[in-house]
Design goal:
Helices cover about 50% and strands about 15% of the residues. The protein is of the alpha+beta class.
Amino acid sequence: MESHEKQLSPEELEIARLRRELNDATKELESFAYAVSHDLRGPTRTILGYASILKEDYAAVLDSAAMDSLDRQVMAARRIEALVADVLKYSRMSRREPVRVDFDLSRLAEGVANEVRNRGWKVPVTFEIEPGLTANADPDLMRMVLDNLFDNAVKFSGPTGSATVQFGADGGGYFVRDRGVGFDMQFSNKLFVPFERLHRPDAFPGTGLGLAGVRKIIARHNGQTWAEGTVDGGATFRFRLG
């Protein structure tokens, strides 16, 4: 009986081998990052706990320089805590396989918008959600995508005095649009890279993993992510599901 299976050339076999090795190395690195981040939580909480005790119990005997040092220690530990939390979240996104179903994306977006709106922002926040949008995707992972994009849109709209966030769909796929500080398009390639930031941490807090996680999730759905923006002219983040 004649075989109809395509015989791979030596070059194709080598490419397949390299791809397997790359996938294995990526999984190993993700597992390592998850394990290290998980183990860092305990020591970080210990640092925060003892620093808080010192501030509360010895405030009367510590001078201003000592109190300032404790404040800096607490701020640094909280940054580590936030980074650990985001690395763990990013690792979970990377390790989880999407379970795709058809669902009401507009309804999910309304729920996420309500959660983001109630996070104690210092500016009024308005969401404009296009009704009737549906998707074939993992609803839990898409909740993470929208939460990151909505939260970012509000955060980077703060300096303008108000935040108006639009969510809808057009020929390019789904989009989240804001009227915030925007960004220079020549640096757009950095937006979705882990730990890359276009703004100073003291201006806009964050760890630089949110958008990287968004791209990871959309890639898990065989989709694409990209962004458009202008300095002081707002930004639009787009994604298309495969």
